[in-house]
Design brief:
Length: 179
């Protein structure tokens, strides 16, 4: 959905900056932190706009295959509210949700999803599938995509760049002992 309301756009950008901060926070996967989890941050806001919960990817940290940032944040928000229904809540996440996370936010009855960067390999909110707006489901979520997409994409790109292009060792000069 296009975000033409200037107040809503400012609110979404403010909330996305919070999600970016969660993704890049201590113990997350920013370069040099030693974490192997992809830096994705998610924040759940209540109907009044107050922050209910946040999460970051914790799959490597916890060994839990379902510990995506969105799932962690949704679980914490449900605990805080005392129930699984997150009606009138907004989930803000730095990366387009995968099928598991998109399904979870539909099942939790999240009203609004705001996400940053598109995920062409696993995205389930328009890239590969569109789970959250599937007419066959009993709940559909309003979606605002591409909020601060460049900043969100840069965080993920910075994480993967050292893995794709490891530092090269300088060549050993002739006559030097080999290691």
């Amino acid at each position: 959905m296009s975000d033409t309301d200037p107040d809503r756009r400012v609110r979404h950008e403010t909330w996305m900056r919070r999600a970016l901060a969660v993704a890049a926070s201590e113990g997350s996967s920013v370069p040099g932190s030693g974490s192997l989890d992809v830096p994705v941050g998610a924040v759940v806001y209540g109907p009044d706009g107050d922050e209910l919960a946040f999460g970051r990817n914790e799959r490597e940290l916890t060994g839990d295959p379902a510990a995506h940032a969105e799932i962690v944040a949704l679980r914490r928000a449900a605990l805080r509210l005392g129930g699984w229904r997150l009606d009138a809540c907004t989930l803000v996440v730095t990366l387009e949700p995968c099928t598991m996370c998109a399904g979870a936010l539909v099942l939790a009855r999240v009203s609004t999803l705001v996400f940053g960067a598109w995920e062409p390999k696993t995205g389930a909110v328009g890239s590969l599938w569109d789970v959250v707006r599937d007419a066959r489901l009993n709940h559909r979520t309003e979606v605002y995509a591409g909020v601060l997409k460049d900043e969100c994409a840069a965080l993920v790109r910075e994480f993967f760049t050292p893995q794709r292009h490891p530092p090269r060792r300088p060549p050993t000069p002739p006559g030097s002992p080999s290691i």
